[in-house]
Design a protein that fits this description.
Elements lengths: L2 E7 L9 H11 L3 E7 L6 H11 L4 E6 L1 H11 L6 E5 L5 H5 L5 H10 L1 E10 L2 E3 L2 E5 H11 L5 H12 L5 E7 L2 E7 L1 E5 L21 E6 L3 H14 L8 E6 L2 E5 L5 E3 L2 E2 L5 E15 L2
Parallel strand pairs: 1-2, 1-3, 3-4
Antiparallel strand pairs: 5-6, 5-16, 7-10, 7-14, 8-9, 8-13, 10-11, 11-12, 13-16, 14-15
This protein binds adenosine-5'-triphosphate.
The site of adenosine-5'-triphosphate (ATP) has 19 residues, from helix 3.
């Protein structure tokens, strides 16, 4: 019998891939799957509508055509329902897809047909769902600048990156775990469930997305030489060798943001905050992945 998948597609995400062409590719590659397609509206009612469709139909899985924002909205809607999620990367950065070894539509189909079913931890950060990577400081400032730019996509990120380099600075943070406090100074402090940003930069070679823990990674390069070494190491996958990079694993933590650094969760800029609390959501979700 054919499997039945709900295909939730965001019509505006990313750099304008033709949605009909993508649907044709899906139908051609996944012969033994019947699709019900549903377009997101961007309205608050989207998660409720997705839950209702899943409650009233026996779907074998949900495919999400969009970027990390769309994936997050769908995961929020369906967590606890036990349906696996397949990512069709139609976003700008596609951070989560990159982390799972999915770099295009054919990888996505391959993951759904022959990939692994990966159990992924979910985290609550001050009431916000975090699946991928959140951070304070340099990158969060970059995300804020990029979202202030006109237009979407990698060009906005590149423009923001140049603007952000002019203003690079250190921030102080206090990490609080069960009565223990540790002060850290960093240009960027990452809360990492996953391993890689959408650019492919491997920020967290230390962690495993399914191990019930997340990593805190503090990066504090001084001067242009160390910034260049860091940039190279992120792509050579050896940042653990740099002495200005520190990392710890936790399953719960509070972070005081002592100098008011910018903060982003899974690519979304958060309002200014002095303190965040990270706790585990006890409903992991399964994604189709290649790695
Ligand atoms: N029909 C729609 N019209 C307008 N906006 C929409 C619609 N559907 C969803 N959205 C908006 O799309 C955004 C999510 O986009 P998403 O994050 O998936 O893509 P992206 O930003 O291009 O990629 P990435 O997150 O990978 O950088 C949300 O802000 C959501 O409100």
């Amino acid at each position: 019998m054919k499997k039945k998948f709900l295909y939730v597609v965001n019509p505006i995400s990313g750099d304008g891939d033709d949605r009909e062409e993508v649907s044709d590719l899906l139908c051609n590659s996944l012969h033994d799957v019947e699709f019900q397609t549903w377009e997101t509206t961007g309205k608050e009612s989207d998660p409720e509508q997705i839950r209702e469709m899943l409650n009233s139909n026996a779907f074998d899985g949900v495919l999400v055509g969009g970027g990390d924002g769309t994936i997050k909205m769908v995961v929020q809607a369906i967590k606890g329902m036990g349906v696996p999620v397949g990512i069709i990367p139609l976003g700008s950065a596609n951070g989560l897809a990159t982390d799972f070894g999915i770099h295009g539509i054919s990888d996505a189909c391959h993951a759904i047909k022959n990939g692994i079913e990966k159990r992924v931890d979910l985290w609550d950060i001050n009431g916000e769902l975090c699946i991928h990577l959140s951070d304070f400081g340099f990158n969060a400032g970059l995300v804020r600048k990029s979202s202030d730019q006109e237009g979407r996509g990698m060009l906005s990120y590149a423009k923001g990156y140049l603007a952000q380099l002019q203003e690079i600075q250190s921030y102080r943070f206090r990490l609080l775990e069960q009565g223990d406090a540790r002060e850290v100074t960093a240009k960027m402090l990452v809360i990492a469930n996953a391993a890689k940003y959408g650019t492919g930069a491997r920020i967290n070679p230390f962690g495993d997305i399914s191990d019930g823990q997340f990593e805190i990674i503090a990066l504090n390069p001084e001067g242009i030489d160390q910034i260049i070494s860091l940039s190279i190491s992120l792509f050579k996958d050896n940042i653990e060798e740099l002495d200005f990079v520190k990392s710890w694993s936790f399953n719960e933590l509070e972070i005081e943001n002592l100098d008011g650094a910018d903060f982003q969760v899974d690519g979304e800029v958060m309002p200014q905050t002095d303190k965040v609390k990270i706790t585990k959501i006890n409903e992991p979700i399964v994604f189709y992945a290649l790695e």
